[in-house]
Design brief:
The protein has 416 residues and is of the alpha+beta class. Helix content is 52%, strand content 13%. The protein folds into 2 domains: 66 residues, no CATH class; 298 residues, Alpha-Beta Complex (Aminoglycoside 3'-phosphotransferase, Chain: A, domain 2), CATH 3.90.1200. α3 packs parallel to α9 and α7 runs antiparallel to α11.
Length: 416
C-alpha cells in the first residue's frame, strides 16, 4: 500500500519497486500527500545495460528527485551475451566501497569541498534488480554532448577526480589489506560469465575489425587496426591476470566516458564533476581509467597539445591526494610505473575505444537498431549493426575521423 500518488512512466515498474520508492520518500525524506511523477531519462543509445527513470516529487517548496536504475527486461537470461545482474551487483558493491572512501576522507579531516564525491545511494531491491540514486540534476550537474570532445578544463577536473578515487583505493589497500582483497574480488567481469558466447563474440570482433580497416584510407591506419579488435578478448584476459598480481593495481571506474561524467558549469566553465555508473568497476591499473577517458572523450588535436601535461597533472594530484594519509606517490605508484602501464594498456584501450566508437557514436535511429539486436540477443544482427560501413555517410565520416585520430595519438606518443 503506497502513501504517495504516482503517475507517468510506471507501467513497467513492479508494485514491489513502487512500494520501495514510497518507503524511501516517506520514511527517509518525510514526504506526505505529494504527487510523484516518473519519466524516462536519456535518449536511445545512452543506456544499453540498464533502464533509468527520473522520480520527481511535485513539491512547490523545494525540488526533489531520485533516479531509478533497473535491470533491462531480457526474456531469456540464459541466452544473454553478458550477465546484466552482475553489472548491478558490481555497482551495489561499489557504493559500499565509495561509502568506505567517504569515511576515510572524513576521518582524515579533508574539507568537504575537497573530497571525492559520488551520488548518494538510497537503497536497492532485495533481488538487486534496481538501485535508487541521488538525482544530481537537482544540484545543477549536467551531462555533456557525447559527440563533442571534452575541453582541457573538463579533462583536468576529471583527472583530479581520478587521482582522488585511485588514491583512496590505495589508502584502503594499505590500511585494510584484507578488506580491500575481499571487496576487489567481489567485482566481477560480466562478460566472462557467459563462456559459450566468447567464441561468437570473437567472430563478431573479427568481422568488425575487417570492416573498420576498410573505412580508413592510409596504410598506416590499416596496419594499426590489424589484430586490434580481433585480439581484444585474449589481450584483456592477459592484462587482467597481470593486474591481479601487480602491487600497483587499484579499484578502477572502468567505463569513464562522456555519458558517465556529470559536470557543474558556471559562467561557461566546468567547476566540478562527479563520476557515475560504476557497473564495470574492476581491479586494474589506474592507466585503464586514464586512457579510457582520454581516448574516448577527447580529440586528436587536444591530445597533441595536452596529453603529456594531463599525465603530469594526474600524477601530481595523486601525490596530493595520498599526502592526506601520509602516503607518497613515489612509493605507492611511481611515475615510471605509470608510464610503463600507459604503454602496456594503450593497445587494449585503443581496441576498446574503437569498439566503443562503433557502439555509441551513432545517431539515435542507428542506436535503436543496435539496441534491438542486443535485446533480441541476435548476434548476427548486432554484428551487422556495428559495422561502420552500414552507417549513413555523415556517421561513417565521423567514425573514420575519430579512429584515425586515435591512431595518430598512439603513434605520436609511441604508445603502440
Amino acid at each position: 500500500m503506497t502513501i504517495l500518488k504516482y503517475n507517468g512512466e510506471i507501467s513497467d515498474i513492479s508494485a514491489d519497486t513502487i512500494e520501495f520508492i514510497d518507503n524511501v520518500l516517506t520514511k527517509k525524506f518525510g514526504f506526505e500527500n505529494k504527487k510523484v511523477r516518473i519519466e524516462p531519462v536519456g535518449k536511445i543509445g545512452d543506456n544499453f545495460a540498464s533502464q533509468v527513470k527520473r522520480i520527481i516529487v511535485e513539491d512547490d517548496s523545494e525540488p526533489f528527485g531520485m533516479l531509478l536504475k533497473s535491470l533491462p527486461v531480457i526474456e531469456d537470461t540464459a541466452e544473454a551475451v553478458f550477465d546484466v545482474q552482475l553489472l548491478f551487483n558490481n555497482e551495489i558493491l561499489m557504493y559500499e566501497i565509495l561509502s568506505k572512501f567517504k569515511d576515510f576522507q572524513t576521518n582524515a579531516g579533508i574539507p568537504k569541498t575537497d573530497q571525492f564525491k559520488f551520488p548518494q545511494c538510497y537503497g536497492f531491491g532485495i533481488k538487486k534488480d534496481f538501485i535508487l540514486l541521488e538525482d544530481l540534476k537537482i544540484s545543477n550537474f549536467t551531462m555533456l554532448d557525447k559527440f563533442e570532445p571534452l575541453s582541457n578544463d573538463c579533462v583536468n577536473i576529471v583527472l583530479k577526480k581520478f587521482a582522488m578515487f585511485h588514491g583512496l583505493s590505495y589508502v584502503l589497500k594499505y590500511q585494510e589489506p584484507e578488506k580491500y582483497k575481499d571487496l576487489k574480488e567481489g567485482l566481477v567481469d560480466p562478460f566472462n560469465s557467459k563462456e559459450h558466447f566468447i567464441s561468437q563474440f570473437q567472430m563478431t570482433l573479427e568481422l568488425i575489425e575487417k570492416d573498420t580497416i576498410n573505412i580508413v584510407d592510409q596504410e598506416k591506419y590499416k596496419n594499426v587496426l590489424k589484430n586490434s579488435l580481433s585480439q581484444m578478448i585474449s589481450y584483456t584476459a592477459v592484462l587482467d591476470n597481470n593486474a591481479e598480481m601487480s602491487q600497483y593495481s587499484v579499484i578502477t571506474h572502468g567505463d569513464c566516458w562522456t555519458n558517465n561524467i556529470l559536470f557543474q558549469i558556471k559562467e561557461g566553465k566546468p567547476v566540478e564533476c562527479i563520476l557515475i555508473d560504476y557497473q564495470l568497476s574492476k581491479h586494474r591499473s589506474p592507466a585503464w581509467d586514464l586512457l579510457h577517458m582520454i581516448f574516448n572523450c577527447t580529440n586528436s588535436a587536444s591530445r597533441h597539445d595536452y596529453y603529456l601535461e594531463w599525465i603530469d597533472y594526474y600524477h601530481s594530484e595523486l601525490d596530493k591526494s595520498l599526502s592526506y594519509f601520509g602516503l607518497k606517490s613515489e612509493i605507492v605508484y611511481p611515475r615510471y610505473e605509470l608510464d610503463a602501464d600507459l604503454k602496456k594498456y594503450a593497445k587494449i584501450l585503443f581496441s576498446h575505444s574503437v569498439f566503443a566508437t562503433m557502439m555509441v557514436m551513432r545517431k539515435p535511429e542507428d542506436s535503436l537498431i543496435l539496441k534491438e539486436a542486443m535485446d533480441e540477443q541476435d548476434v548476427d544482427k548486432f554484428t551487422e549493426a556495428m559495422k561502420a560501413s552500414n552507417l549513413d555517410e555523415d556517421s561513417k565520416k565521423r567514425t573514420k575521423n575519430i579512429i584515425e585520430g586515435l591512431i595518430d595519438t598512439v603513434l605520436e606518443f609511441n604508445l603502440m
